[in-house]
Design a protein that fits this description.
Blueprint lengths: L5 H9 L27 E6 L6 H9 L1 H5 L2 E6 L3 H9 L5 E5 H9 L4 E6 L4 E5 L14 E4 L4 H11 L9 E4 L3 H9 L5 E5 L2 H7 L3 E5 L8 E6 H6 L1 H20 L6 H7 L23 H14 L8 H4 L7
Parallel strand pairs: 1-2, 1-3, 6-7, 6-8
Antiparallel strand pairs: 3-10, 4-10, 5-8, 5-9
Helix pairs in contact: 1-7, 2-10, 5-12
Length: about 325
Amino acid sequence: MKKLSLLIGTLASILLLSACTGNNNATTSDTSSLPETQDLPTLRIGMLPAENHIPFILADERGWDESNGVNLEIVNFSSPRERDAALAAGELDGVSTDLIAVSIAQQAGSNLRPVSSSHGNFVLMAADESIQSPADLKGKNVILASNAGPEYAVAMMLASAGLTLDDINVMEIPQVPARLELLQNGQADAAILPEPFGTIATAQALHEVSSTRTLGLNPFSIAFKDDVINENKEAILALFAAYNQAVDYLNENDQAEFIDLFIASVGYPEELKEKITIPKFTHIVQVKESDFNSVFAWSREKGIYSGEQSFFDIISNNVFD
């Protein structure tokens, strides 16, 4: 973890993050019957550049948020800590996040509650061909973000090989794009990345070692605070309706219809246009109890969360009542 000044230039060079705020003037049919945006409730959702946000981006760009009765404002961040600081400061209504961040918020006394799961994936990438499985990481330098979803993901991958975090050399890099650049520059042996960075890394001669999806884990969620859930239940339902509408469109249409939007907004390089495969998304569903229990057990073991609350104490089902 040498020259941290590399982090500054990385963000601009890999992603066009500013484009992710969306464009609601796009290609739906007649919008004259839609309610005025200023008359709709607004939900400001904090997100990182990742593939699980594609349905939100499409719903926002096509105006399906407004046609379902809510104004979605996507607020982009380059690291989980920046996103979570904005949530704590009251600048966001909700976050697309992971359950580690939820455990941190709960420990701090915030009633941040997962309202649904999210279709995410953490991918462990390496350049050295000798690293083909998590077992090969022993003694290696691995880039991650500590006390966050990326560290949980690496811990679970190591556990699958009978190893722990003590068996690797952790390099702490919170910013997602910077992890990829440092790995490309040979300053680490492996790095944990959310998609689409795994796809980008594969195109740059790096290879996948493991992933949360491979392990059957899904620690990702969409979460809101209690007051937002209680006061804006209908807005959250409208947001999820728009998300589901986008999922149906993504799954039923050729990706040539929408791939240019994601090249601009999620950060896929233009030269990967023909290599990108958009995953099959699912409708909004609640977090699985097994995923919750896995994350919170690890969070307690790490000393992040010391509470005794269970799945049913923390998960919110109020929106779907």
